[in-house]
Every structure is written in structure tokens, then in C-alpha cells.
Design goal:
By secondary structure, this protein is mainly α. The chain is about 70% helix and about 0% strand. The chain folds into two domains: about 1-35, no CATH class; about 40-115. It has helices at about 5-15, 25-30, 40-85, 95-120. GO terms for molecular function: DNA binding.
Amino acid sequence: MLLNSEVILSQVKELTTGTASIHLNVGSVRNFEILVPPLSEQEEILRRAEAAFQSIHLIEEEYCKASKLLERLEQIILAKAFRGELVDQDPNDEPACDLLDRIRAEKKDQTLKSKSKKKVK
């Protein structure tokens, strides 16, 4: 990252010699000017980075807890659905087996109608 910075690249460009084979003197590299923020600014950057990582860690923990809770809730909802506990039961509702038979009959009827329409065309 540092070697790709504008400051370093401009210094390299100024100090390189040759056209076909570019050379850079090691002594010149030792004299590169590398800008470093004051210690107080470095400490502030570090403090903010640590705070950000702490926040990320807390969010990750909350995500894991929520994910586990969601998984449990899905299982609970499915179990209640199979037991018929999600809604109040109406004695006037048709049994599930009758409903399935009616759906199958309607599907079969629709399939026959669509086949007869194809033959007419």
C-alpha cells in the first residue's frame, strides 16, 4: 500500500534511470520521504479502528443470536402449523383430505380443458 502511494511513486519516477532497462539506486530508496502522521493522529486512527472492530464484533454476535433464534422460531411455527395451532379451528372448515381431493379434481379438470383447447387450434 505504501509503495503504491502517489508520494512514493513520484519519488521513484524522479530517481529511476534508463529507458530500456530501468534502474533504481538503493541509496536513493533509503532517502525516500515517507510522510507519517503525528503520533496523536496515529493514536486517534488506532482508537477509531479498534472501536470499529469492537462494533463489528458486537454486530456479529447479535447476528449469530438472531440467526439461531430465527431457526428455532421456524421450527416452532412449523410444529404449530402441523398441530393446527396457528389459527382458531372452525368446525365448519372442510377436512384437509377433502380439500386436497377438490384441488386434485380442479387441476385434472383444468388439464383436460387446456388439452382440448390445444386440439381445437
